[in-house]
Amino acid sequence: MEALIHLFLACFLMLSTPVGDFLFCTWHIFGLNDYDNKLFNINLKIMKKVINSFSAFILVITMLTVSCSKEKSPSETDFFVGTYHGAISFTDGNETKGDTNGRVTVVKVGNSYTFDFGSGIPNITNVKFEKSGDAYVSIGEGVTGITIDANSLKALVTNDKGTWTANCTR
Q1: Can you give the pTM of this predicted structure?
Q2: pLDDT digits (tens, 9 = 90+) for 42-86
Q3: Could you give the angle at the alpha carbon of 69 between the alpha carbons of 154 and 55, nearest 5°?
Q4: Domain residue spans in the chain?
Q5: Pairwise CA distance, residues 92 & 160, whole Å
Q6: Which class is domain 74-169?
Q7: Which single residue of 15, 55, 79, 102 could bond 88 by disulfide (Cβ 3.0 to 4.6 Å)?
């Protein structure tokens, strides 16, 4: 993967420098007249823009693919953002909100986790975890009942604000 990135960067740099212009413009030695030379220069500019844009696009896609791996567990890094999909619900005594195709976006900064529920369900913030086997289990008053790993999120949290449930996968 790293070799591909180096190849695209080399092509990008070669075509956006005077060396690249020199290599492409040597064609006029082989008998191109002025009209052909003008067309060649216009096509060269267009081709350089297309190659530069394509190289930048490939570089961005490669970086995103490598950095957003679904096999990465939230506990492995100090910064993590991942979205889990599945059944979610919230009850506060007055009303119940739920979604069988809901989403929970997990954001970890340092040792603190935030669970951003979709479907109008309130978020759970400032949650701490400890390792339990292959998964991590939430600790602290009012936020116990969350289990998370690289592939799944399960929650049954009850406190004075209400009750959250989640059964989600990545």
Answers
A1: 0.57
A2: 666 777 777 878 777 777 676 655 555 556 666 667 778 889 999
A3: 150
A4: 2-67, 74-169
A5: 8
A6: mainly beta
A7: 102
